Every structure is written in structure tokens, then in C-alpha cells.
Amino acid sequence: MQDANGVTVAWLFCRDGSSRYSFGAPTLTADEARRIGQAIARIPELLMPRKGFHPRGGGPRWRTDRPYHVAIEDNFLRENWFEIDALCKLNSLPFNATGETIRGDGTWRVYEFTWQMDAILFWDRFKGRWLRGSEFHYPERPADLPELKPLTNWPKFNPRDTR
Hints:
By secondary structure, this protein is of the alpha+beta class. 27% of the residues lie in helices and 21% in strands.
């Protein structure tokens, strides 16, 4: 596996289709090795900063190691709490609340992220608001945004079940 500059970044060993049995350590099929190679090749693309999604900036309560903040509307958060929690766990998205509440056009709860891509995926899936300083920022959705793994067999919210 080589990067765009021709530097070898990984060796992926696989068995060819003619060998039926592998002895010793299990090996990858050619298709599995190809998929892993494609994923490795996309790592720099997924880690590069996206335009329009800026860090929030300095503040007395904001951690410097988690510069990306997304606000979620409080009523949406309460109605979909268990689904949001399960989806974040399934997709390994951090779900760290800052404890900050923004009031204005409704009530918003703020969540912080270390990685920009995690914050973008969270922002996109739950229709949040990107924060830049103390203001909402409305960047355009990137065209090549990866999809989150969906929850299977997830029940719909029924307000009568909360009584």
C-alpha cells in the first residue's frame, strides 16, 4: 500500500483464491485486504481539516484539547436521548457535555469534541448548531461525508412510554 507520494505505508498480506485452507495464523482474503487498503488510503483525507468548521476559540470554561463544540436543541435531545446515546456508542462518537446551556431561540445543550470529523458527524446526524465563539455558525454540509452505522431494530419514540 502506497500513499500519493509513492511511499509505502502498509503491507497487506492475503491468500489467493486458489488456496482453500490456511495453516498457522489466519490470513486475509484478497477482497478483505483490498478494503483495508482503501480504508488506510482514506485516513489522511478523513483527518484533514474541513473548510467552514472552525474551532470554537478560547474561553474560560472550554478545554483546549476539545476545541469543536456542537449545540443540540434541548427538546430534541430529551425526546431522542436513548437513540442518540446508542448511536454514539455504536459509531464510537464521544458524547461529552460541557454543561453549558445557551438560551435564545430555544434552549440548546453544548457538546465538545477533540476531532473535527467526530463533531461534523454528530452535527450532521442530529441537526445541531456549530459553535464559533458564542455564536451559532452555519457551515455547508460536506458532499463526501461518511455515513454513520445505523441502529437496527430500534423502537420509535412513544411519549406514553415515558409515564
